Amino acid sequence: MAWDMYLEVILQHYRSPRNFGPLDGATREGEESNPLCGDHITLRLKVDPGSHRIEDVKFQGDGCAISVASASMLTEKLGGLTLEEANRISRDDVLGQLGIPLSPVRVKCALTGFAALGRALHPETAPTAT
User: Fold this and answer.
1) CA distances from 48 to 15, 25, 28, 83 (A)
2) 3-state SS assignment for residue 19
3) Which domains does the chain have, with CATH numbers?
4) Which of 28, 66, 94, 128 might form a disulfide with 114, Cβ 3.0–4.6 angstroms?
5) Spatial separation of the C-alpha atoms in residues 80 and 107, rounded to whole Å
6) Starting from the edge strand earliest in sequence, which strands make up the sheet with 54-62, in order?
7) E strand or H helix at 36, and its extent?
8) Tens digits of per-residue pLDDT, 74-121?
9) How far does Cα 83 stand from its chain's mean position?
10) Are 30 and 118 a contacting pair, CB within 8 Å?
């Protein structure tokens, strides 16, 4: 019965993702793709330069229900956090918010938005095309 509830929440986030759309004035951006499932997520943050607090967060992209729902849930969690607090969000936190067991392929789907967040938080370590 609990799985049905979690699946319904995932479908709600997929059908009506929170914080979906462009973000004017974004100060940080990260992008990630999952070619196995066709997921592509771009996550943008607007960060206050003085407090380092995330003032706004949005994401755009396409993907399966798990990918979009996970990114939607992640953006809800990020709003109002400092960069330091956002940096402490773990992969287990992201997977745990879904509330259902995932196959290894679906884990990658669920972590696409999280990987985009990592690129937004640490652009200096993101791989570059050469």
Assistant:
1) 30, 11, 11, 10
2) coil
3) 2-121 (3.90.1010.10)
4) 94
5) 26
6) 28-34, 39-47, 54-62
7) none
8) 999 999 999 999 999 999 999 999 988 999 989 999 999 999 999 999
9) 14
10) yes
